[in-house]
Each structure stands twice: as C-alpha cells, then as structure tokens.
Amino acid sequence: MKTNSSWQKVAPWYNKVTKGGEGHYYHQHVVIPNVLRLLELNNKLQMSNVKLLDMACGNGVLGRALPKNIDYLGIDIAPSLISEAKRNDRNFSHKYIVGDVTEPISVSSDFTHAAIILALQNIKNPESALQNVSKSLVSGGKFVIVLNHPAFRIPRQSSWGIDETKKTQYRRIDRYMSPLEIPIHIHPHTKNFSVRVYPSDRTSQVAMSYHFPISDYSKMLKDVGFVIEAIEEWTSDKESVGRAGKMENRARNEIPLFMTIVAKKLDF
Any residues with CB less than 8 A from the CB of 27 and at least 6 apart, and which? Predict the structure, then answer.
C-alpha cells in the first residue's frame, strides 16, 4: 500500500491551516454544516443505525463534527493526517485507518452513508475511489461529495479579473473540458501558509490536483452504481467593505466556491 502521497509530505501544513481537525474558515462556516444537512444526520431515532464512511478523510474534520453516537470510519493515505485525526478525536465510535482509497480496501459493506469532502480533486483515479464507496454502501445508501467547483476553480486555468468599464469582477476560465493533472506548490514557511499554483521555489512542497469536468464525474458515478439526486453550489459567506466591496460581494455571491453532489446507491 502506498503511503508516500504528496499529501503526506504537506501534512504539517494542512494540519496548521485546518487547526488540527477543526477545519479552516470554509470548513466551519460553509462545508461541514451543509454536509451534515445533506447527510440528514438530524433524526435522533435514525442516528443509532447510521454507519458513515469518510474517504480521504484527512485529519478528521468531518468526524469531529458528527453527532457523538454515529459509527464512523475515516480512511486516508497519509499516516501523518491519520495520526492527527486519532490524536484529536477521542470518540470510541470513531476509527481511523491508513489506506489508499483507490485500491481494494478491507472494510464492511454495510455503511449507510459515505462522504468525500474536498478530496476527490486530489485523487488521480477518482473512479476507483467511487467504486470502493459503492462496494461499501448498502442499497439506498447516501453519498455526499464536496469539490472545489470544477467549472470555476481550475488551478492555472481560472482566475479573477476586473472589467473597469462595467465595474464588475468576473471569473475567467481558460480550459474546462480537458482532464488535467496540476501541481500545487505549497509554501509552509510563509506567514500565511500560502498555496500557489506557481511558481515553485526551494522551500515549496508540491501536492497534486486533478481536474475533471462535471460530466466526467456524472459518468463515473453512474458506472459504479449511483444515481445523482441533487447538485448544490455553495458560495462564500464573507463580505467585503470599501470601494470595491459592492463589486466583490456581487461576484462572491454569483460565482460558487464549491459544488456538492448527493448520490444514492442503486439497488441491483
């Protein structure tokens, strides 16, 4: 089993920006609250029967946010992230294991829920990960995927621009339909632990990102036995002030940061 992924190398940086599993700003304010809503983990009578699989779980951001009595398994290829998850999540109903989610995994096939949160775009063979989720879910099981929006947040192929004539901020997209493998240079020694697509330097560490158009994700899910029930697009809840505030807020409200797919395991 591989454990030397690019995310193992940048795990110390990731643990800092996600506050050791509590999550960064968008985890806390946008992503996790909406994931819990979509997983429908709000019925106390049903929660005792919930068994949740968290693929590419990182350092346990989702696990720590769950109601306490939910049976949970988190899997990630990076040992440093799994160690951090175990250190910060003391719930006896939660387990974390090191594993490559694209390779055959020895887990039960009775999970009622599954999630991949802001991680599928970092997996070179996403269809293999989706196949493993399908094998692990019961018929009718619910699956939630959160992605950096594939149409608007494409490293090296998307950027912000300003139309001075219209006084508007817009999103420029240079490529979309072509699958891409993109190195992300992370600078863990800078003050703000910055992430840059380029350039690299001697202090930067590289993590890989993989772009696929939405139609590819749809086909992958269909091929492994899922039907898409809903797609949601989530924008930022931050607000700008000052001269450019109105323009920035309008762009922020119109261009989503995240795309979320809710899928259901079909009964074969």
Answer: 18, 61
- 208, 56 Cβ separation under 8 angstroms: no
Measured CA to CA in angstroms, residue 124 lies from 59, 68, 121, 182 at distances of 20, 33, 8, 10
* 8 Å CB contact between 114 and 141: yes
**Whole-number percent of the chain with pLDDT over 90:** 74
Q: Beta partners for 72? A: 52, 94
Q: What does DSSP assign to residue 98?
A: E
3-state secondary structure of 64: helix
Angstrom distance (rounded) from CA 140 to CA 221? 14
- Structure tokens of 41? 């983990």
- The answer to whether the CB of 86 falls within 8 A of the CB of 20 is no
**Burial readout 120-132 (b: 16 or more C-beta within 10 A, e: otherwise):** bbbbeebbbbbbb
Model pLDDT for residues 47-77, shown as the tens digit of each residue: 668 999 999 999 999 999 998 889 999 999 9
Q: Reduce the secondary structure of 12-55 to three states and give it as a string.
A: HHHHHHCHHHCCCHHHHHHHHHHHHHHHCCCCHHHHCCCEEEEE
As a whole number of angstroms, the distance between CA 195 and CA 197 comes to: 7
